[in-house]
Amino acid sequence: MNRQLSGRRPNIVFIIADDHQHDAIHALGNQAVQTPSLDRLAASGTVFRNTNINGGTSGAVCAPCRACVHTGNPYFQATVSGTLQDDMNNITMRPENALLPAVMREHGYRTFATGKWHNDFASFNRCFQGGENIFFGGMSDHDQVPVHDYDPEGHYTPEQRQVKAGFSSELFTESAIAFIEEEKEDEPFFLYVAYTAPHDPRTPPAPYDSMYDPDEITLPDNFLPEHPFDHGARDIRGEYLAAQPRQPEEIRRHIADYYGMITHMDAQIGRLMTALEKNGQADNTIIVYTSDHGLALGRHGLMAKQCMYEHSIRVPWMMKGPGIEAGLQLDDLCYQFDIFPTLCESVGLQVPDSVRGISHYSVMRDRGRTQPIRGTVYSLYRDVQRGIKDERWKLILYRKSPVTGQGCRETQLFDLLHDPCEMNNLAGDHQYAYRIARLHEQLRSTMNAFEDPYRHLFQ
Fold it and tell me: 381 and 331 share a domain?
């Protein structure tokens, strides 16, 4: 039965993963990983292949990135603090900002959340009218997730927290499906599903734990035993998940488990899509899939995500649904925080004044434009790394932190067209001095526009 209602805005299912590399999807070029549900989403919708995070000053990069998604803003406009401290101030979203789920709620959407919310409680309750199995935190064991159910008063105390039986991806999917099955015909819904997969600990359940043989895993072309210099994030927890120098057999094991986590999550996404079909909602629902950030996992000798390399700053972004072209893949430069205005325009809502992201809806509707929406994108990590890239070139600057003492002064220039794995640093070649100077000037301009408080370190 098709329940699409004439004149009613489409439903929205917003799915966000944790640590999913932008290209760790079968349909997007990685033939080693099996992702039939995401492949189906890519085939029936539009893929923005060059979507980039802005980053943050917190070692827990996921929190600032999620704040950017929810507010549609660069990091320093998304949160109330830009300090280097990993505390609640760093992940509290500015109360004056519009929030994506809250905007949908204000325009008649019934909003519901399940899964990870790595930001403040007050923002959560501004956004959602209901929820189940909500995880307020950064990470946990996947079979021991401490979750809350929705509290209309916003009191999510430790005493209310409980550990429920089941694997995280399955637990969140069950809550999402139950919500879909209770869908009301008289109002659209906004369903927020935030998986903690494929974040470590990478412990996929059977049979996914043995689906990928480490001996058959091919190491990435940019695998290195060690990063060539101190990039300012050597002491991050994630870097200690594998021995240093990196051993090929250990990295293959990590990748095999990572793929198992992704394929298991993909199966749960497939269950969500099936629930929409069975309930007659598939044709009137926009599905968004993205991730908070990427991950190194052995590339460049790194394991974590606190870097400016493509594997860590780029994220998947796919959309399908009414009015969205099927089978379209775009390479235009995007920020992760552009998702907010793009989704607003897709459902016919005015983009709030507080949003600094730019809608890419016109890109989907008009492929014949002559000028890209964005000429460059820039990313940051704490006070030690800044990067900027255009459609071909990327400049990364490294500085030693005056606060922590970590990092060193280095410059990298990569030709992404001929060196997509970022292995050939051209910064020492004098013939590229003009290119570095041009990108550096664009970086200074962008840091000023984004009010980066550490911009003086990178002048």
Answer: no
Q: How many residues does the chain have?
A: 459
Same domain, 334 and 261: yes
* Residues whose CB falls within 8 Å of the CB of residue 67, separated by 6 or more in sequence, listed in order: 56, 73, 75, 78, 79, 91, 93, 119
CA-nearest of 3, 9, 10, 27 to 318 is 27
Please check whether residues 201 and 262 belong to one and the same domain.
Answer: yes
Q: Is the pLDDT confidence value at 3 over 50?
A: no
Alpha helices (runs of H) in 56-133, residue ranges in sequence order: 62-71, 75-78, 100-106, 121-127
Phi first, then psi: give them for residue 44, nearest 5 degrees.
-100, 5
Least-confidence region, from 258-267, 305-314, 324-333, 360-369? 360-369
Number of C-beta neighbours around residue 339 at 10 A = 27
Strands 377-381 and 162-163: unpaired
Spatial CA neighbour of 285 closest among 404, 189, 422, 149: 189
Largest pairwise CA distance in the chain: 66
Amino acid, res. 128? F
Selection from 59, 55, 80, 57 nearest residue 68 by Cα? 55
Global pTM reads 0.96
Domain, as residue range, for 439: 377-458
What percentage of the chain exceeds 70 in pLDDT? 96
**What's the CATH number where 191 sits?**
3.40.720.10
Which residue type occupies 57?
Answer: T
How many C-alpha atoms does 166 have within 13 Å on its Cβ side? 13
How many degrees, rounded to 5, is the angle at CA 291 between CA 383 and CA 260?
115
Q: What is the C-alpha separation between 290 and 273, in angstroms, rounded?
A: 16
Instruction: Specify the number of domains making up the chain.
Output: 2
With 70 as the cut, is the pLDDT of residue 369 above it? no
Co-location of 130 and 256 in the same domain: yes
Query: Helices (H), strands (E): how many in the chain?
Result: 11, 16
pLDDT band at 68 (very low <50, low <70, confident <90, very high): very high
Helix (H) or strand (E) holding 49: strand 46-52
Q: Are residues 63 and 37 in contact, defined by beta-carbon separation less than 8 angstroms?
A: no
Q: What is the dihedral of CA 78, 83, 84, 88, to 10 degrees?
A: -70
The model's pLDDT over 95-137, given as tens digits with 9 standing for 90+, comes to: 999 999 999 999 999 999 999 999 999 999 999 999 999 999 8
The b-or-e profile of 416-453 (16+ CB within 10 A means b, else e) is beeeebbeeebbeeeebeebbeebbebbbebbeebebe
Residue 288's pLDDT is what? 98
